[in-house]
Amino acid sequence: MAKKNEAEMPENTGGLNIQNFFQGTKEELEKVVWPSRRQLVSESAAVLLMVTLSASLIYLVDGLFAWAAKQVF
């Protein structure tokens, strides 16, 4: 990725220019590599599976500690 020369970069006046903001936002969104539908579904399923497994593990460990606390107290 080539860097722009300092001469090519626009000067920052320090103020808020709404037109420059939206233009910059549009330029950045054009650089985004959007996932395909298949990739989106696959990765979403993986996230949901991991969240479910993590929550189940936490639930089981919590139950174990609750049981151990009952036995002690």
TrEMBL record:
GO biological process, one term: protein targeting
Bilayer-spanning residue ranges: 46-69
Alphabetically ordered keywords of this record: Cell inner membrane, Cell membrane, Membrane, Protein transport, Thylakoid, Translocation, Transmembrane, Transmembrane helix, Transport
Principal subcellular localization: membrane
Membrane association type: Single-pass membrane protein
Any one GO MF annotation of this record: protein transmembrane transporter activity
GO CC terms in record: plasma membrane-derived thylakoid membrane
Cell compartment(s), UniProt: Cell inner membrane; Cellular thylakoid membrane; Membrane
Pfam families the UniProt entry points to: SecE
PANTHER family: PROTEIN TRANSLOCASE SUBUNIT SECE (PTHR33910)
Purpose of the protein: Essential subunit of the Sec protein translocation channel SecYEG. Clamps together the 2 halves of SecY. May contact the channel plug during translocation.
Family per similarity comment: Belongs to the SecE/SEC61-gamma family.
Subunit details: Component of the Sec protein translocase complex. Heterotrimer consisting of SecY, SecE and SecG subunits. The heterotrimers can form oligomers, although 1 heterotrimer is thought to be able to translocate proteins. Interacts with the ribosome. Interacts with SecDF, and other proteins may be involved. Interacts with SecA.
Protein's recorded name: Protein translocase subunit SecE
Species assigned in the record: Nostoc piscinale CENA21
Classification of source organism: Bacteria, Bacillati, Cyanobacteriota, Cyanophyceae, Nostocales
